[in-house]
Structure formats: structure tokens, C-alpha cells
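pipeline/complex-builder :: batch 7 item 3
reading input block
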Amino acid sequence: MTSESRKRNLFYNRLGIGVSRYLTVFTAVLFCSILLFLFYHGAANLSLKFFFSHPENLGRSGGIFPIIISTALLCAVALFIAVPLGIGTAVFLTEYTREGWLTMIIRFGSECLAGIPSIIFGLFGFALFVVTLKMGWCILSGGLTLAFMVLPTIIRTSEEAIKSVPRQLRELGFSLGATKSQVISKIVLPQARNGILTGIILSLGRAIGETACVIFTTGVSIEMPRSLFQSARSMSVHFYILAREGISMEMAYTTALVLVSLILLVNLFATFLVSRKR
Amino acid sequence: MSFVRLRLLNLFSGSNRLLNRLQEVSAEGTLTGKIYLDGKDIYSPDTDPNHLRREVGFTFDKPYVLDLSIFENVVFGPRLAGLTSRSELESLVEETLSAAFLWDEVKDRLQMNANSLSGGQKQRLSIARSLALKPKLLLLDEPCSALDPVSTARIEEALLLIKHRTACVLVTNNTKQASRVADITAFFLMSRLIEIGPTRKLFTTPSDKRTDDYISGKFG
């Protein structure tokens, strides 16, 4: 190599490292400034009482306890439906079918589903659960709609995780006398566990923060839900209403701070689960 | 070399790739003959493939372990077959790991994840895992091809004892290994059986010139 071209390579190398470093710093600064902004505006009202007391005067004062519970219930319903359905679909697509028109249609369909804006899911959930099935605005309607929304993510990540299990491990299972279903349940799924968990937790992060989907199907009731068939309010919907109707910007920021911290915690937990050795 | 191996492998793995290769072989019209295990034709329709898999153990060319503890790796097959007694499982683990020359190295850490073992130890664990099903036949598909000479020597030591309790078929490209371990050696070239006979005879007075060329190192 001539010294001329070596110099040029070195220059491009340094340029690449420099540019990517600045871009990384920019992303980190952007993220931190959002957090700081929320903290600056919301931290004043933050106390243990905010977490564990009921909202008063439409949310102008008091806490968000029923809203936290509603959010948790919505996510629980969504994952309870979406996780078995998603993993089952992924197992079917990877283990029980040959690549063909059927798998192509299912895959194409689930990818399209992943690209649909959440408000369309909300509208669909409203038309199907709230109106047609006469379930009304309730946590169950909202949870089911959220399940539809996160299903593609779970299918996709589970599929990738299952595909990354080496073929030889399956053959090993067969050579030890396992049947196909035993190989899947005792070898493939445990091996793919981390990837599947990551997908589930990413979906959870999306479901916690979802607004449009929930407002159409669960309504905006500020009361403590006593069953899954009652209307409720998720944290992001609470934030939206507090800010939109000019009820209390301070309370809106505090709710947002709690919501973002929660999502952060969920993601940290996912990182911890994945990095942990069994 | 690959002829016998393919037909047997096909039964246990059922993998598409091998099936495809098998079909290629049969298209050339070379797929004939029968395989008997204990006097029963394994290709006859009455053979239960699941039962057959338990009777024939298999070790892969690369060390694959399940992402479980050493103990659970060994008892994976027996558990599937319905063995639950703790004491029986424990004695089975000690017995098979000893047979695979691994017991002394791991007896104090049976609950450790098997992935923390070295390549040679994993391969001996694979052998123990196959033996735990008490197979009538143990197939070893180039078990040492990914291992260093010291690990290879330990596996050969183990095989020299195992062959007295379980019939073994060892596929290898290492002629010296065949001469050290085997009682009977068959030489395959381009999917055809060239010569089969007692190891000593095959290595000292081969009857086919190609065998002579191979073991004396003219090719291969």
C-alpha cells in the first residue's frame, strides 16, 4: 500500500469514528434533556403520597394510584393474550411449517400490522369490542386491543430467537429419544428464552405508554377499577387529559415523569434479564 | 465413508439436509442393502423410530451440550424415557460419567452449567449422555475432529473401555485413531466400501491398493 492511500484510509477512519462519536453524544444528550425537562417540571409534586392516593378535583391535586393500577391491569390483559398467541404463532411458523405461501402471508400480515398507527388499532378496537361485541369502554376491550397491537413484535422477536437455536441441538434432542414437541418445549424454547423475553418486555414498554389505542377502547374514567369490565384511565391518557383540558400542567408533568421512569425501569429490567447467566 | 453413516443418520435426525443428500444418492442408484440391529431390519415398517433412537446413541462431530447443568445433561434422555427415581438417576450419572472418563473432573460441580466445560469435556459429556440411555449401539461421527490431541487421547481412552459394553461405530478421517481404537475397520472411499477386516490385518496387509495408498499416506 502506498503511503498516500494509507493516509487517506487513516483520514476516513478518523472521520468515521469522529462522526459516529458526535452522533452518539447527540442521542444521549437528547434523551437526558427530555428526562431533565420532565424532572424539572414534575419533581415538585413527586412524593410517596402521589403514588398511593386517589386523584382529587379531576386530578388537580391528590395522586394517581387508581391510574397506576389501571395501567398495570391493561398491560396484564394485553400480555396475557398476546404472549401465548405470539409464541405459539412463532413456534408454528418456524417449527411446523415449510416456507410457503401460507407462512409468507402470515409473516407479511404481521409485518403490516406492526406498521399500522396505534390510533387505527384504537378505532378497530372501538368498532369491534366496544360497539359490535357490546363490551363498552372497559379494561378488557383496551387490553385486547393492546394485545393486537403488540402481537407482531412478540411474533417477530420470538421467531428470530427460535431460529437462532442451532439445528444440531434439535437433532441432539431427537437422538436422545425426544419427540418433536418435547424438543420444542425442553430444548428450543429454553434456549430461545432470552430473545423471547426481550420481545415481551419491549412490548410491555410499548403497551404502558400507549395513548390512542386506550382512549378509544377503555375510556377516561378516573375511578379505581373494580373489575375488568369497567372503564379506566391509563397513565398516558391521564397525562393527555390533564394537559389538553388545561386541568393541571404540574400534575401532567409529574404523571409523565412517573410513566417515563417506569418505562426506563422495564427496559433496565429487560437488559438485566438478558445479561444474567442462569 | 458417508454411505453407512448417511442411512443411519437419516433415521435419527430426519433433517432435511441429510434427507436431500440421501435422495441424491438414491438417484444415482447406489442405495441398496439393509441394516439390521439385533436381527431386526431397521427399515421395516414395524420399526418404531422413537424406540430405535433410544437404542442407538449418537455423538456429533462438534461438542453440543444442552443449556442445563452437567447432571441434567446426562439424565435428559432417561428422564424423557420416564426414569424419575433420584437415587437411580444419581448412580446413572456417576456410572456414565465414569465410563466417559469425566467423573473425576466434574464430580464436585455436577450442578454447574455444562457450557462452562472445555470442548473435550463437552464431547465426553455427550458420550456419557448417549450412554445414559443404555443404547445397543453407539455411533460417533468424527468425535475428535474439533479437539486438540490431549482431549482426543482422553476420548480414545474412554472408547477403549466403552467398546466392551456397547458396540461402537466410529467414523473418522484419522487413520491412526482407527488403528488405535477399532477392532474392525472399514475403509470407504467416495461413498463406496473398499475394504473391511480386522484392524490389524487392514493396516498391515491391506488387500486393496487404494487402502494401502490411504493408510500409507499417499493421499488423504
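note: Confidence is low (pLDDT under 50) at residues 1-31 of chain B.
queue -> next item
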